[in-house]
Recover the amino acids of this structure.
């Protein structure tokens, strides 16, 4: 596996591969890699001749600096994992390489970044969109791969790709889960054993919501049931549960209002924030 920390040599390396007709796929990550990331890598490998993974904890997408400081990092372990699954290229830049000057650009996505994550994490998606734009511009992949767990992020990146005319195929890869339903996430590393036992309440809440919607329950009753399930533990808190259109993220009252609705949830186990989602059909 080739490892790059600077932009210029990475671009030169990839230019030669593309000149030889090689297709390039990108799996952007913030590290703390797990089996969910491996599934992204394997999907990318099945559709491209060269797989590039980036590891960069993007500081400007954190509206909570304490969250940034506590975000799990283990580049040695991550590098070994990528090598073991046959990743071709790792791009692991320092902050100064990606942001040689303080960034002053703010990106606005209309209603897409005002609900759910956007409401509770102001500025988050502007930071995500900027770093993804940089990675797309640096690597110029043919395809890019993202996990379904971050569905709102995926919807915003689709908008970004269309607006800026990036000629890149975007792919959302289904969420992998632990046997008890907990969605795989880098933040799970921060859960202590007691918290880990409680963390699947968000998955349980989604299952309850799915059953309620199938039975024709109204969205207010569904939300009450989700809150009751999630907050059965005193140190677990629901931040939001919403039923939205998967394309435009408009809030829905029922599943009939969208061709492809999706249920999205976020909350805290102690001070660790987790998100999840599920299609109701």
């Amino acid at each position: 596996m080739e490892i790059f920390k600077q932009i210029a040599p990475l671009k030169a390396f990839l230019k030669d591969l593309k000149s030889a007709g090689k297709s390039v796929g990108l799996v952007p990550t913030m590290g703390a890699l797990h089996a969910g990331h491996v599934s992204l890598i394997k999907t990318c490998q099945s559709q491209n001749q060269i797989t590039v993974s980036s590891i960069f904890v993007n500081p400007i997408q954190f509206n909570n600096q304490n969250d940034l400081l506590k975000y799990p990092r283990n580049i040695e372990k991550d590098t070994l994992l990528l090598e073991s699954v046959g990743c071709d290229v790792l791009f692991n830049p320092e902050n100064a390489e990606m942001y040689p000057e303080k960034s002053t650009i703010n990106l606005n996505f209309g209603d897409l970044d005002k609900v759910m994550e956007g409401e509770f994490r102001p500025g988050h998606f502007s930071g995500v969109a900027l770093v993804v734009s940089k990675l797309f511009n640096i690597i110029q992949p043919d395809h890019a791969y993202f996990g379904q767990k971050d569905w709102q992020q995926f919807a915003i990146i689709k908008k970004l790709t269309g607006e800026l005319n990036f000629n890149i195929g975007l792919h959302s890869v289904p969420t992998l889960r632990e046997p008890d339903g907990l969605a795989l996430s880098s933040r799970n590393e921060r859960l202590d054993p007691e918290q880990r036992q409680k963390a699947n309440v968000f998955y349980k809440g989604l299952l309850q919501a799915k059953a309620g919607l199938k039975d024709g329950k109204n969205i207010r009753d569904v939300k009450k049931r989700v809150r009751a399930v999630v907050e059965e533990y005193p140190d677990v808190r629901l931040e939001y549960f919403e039923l939205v259109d998967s394309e435009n993220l408009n809030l829905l009252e029922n599943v009939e209002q969208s061709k492809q609705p999706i249920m999205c949830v976020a909350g805290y186990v102690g001070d660790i924030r987790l998100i999840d989602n599920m299609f109701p059909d």
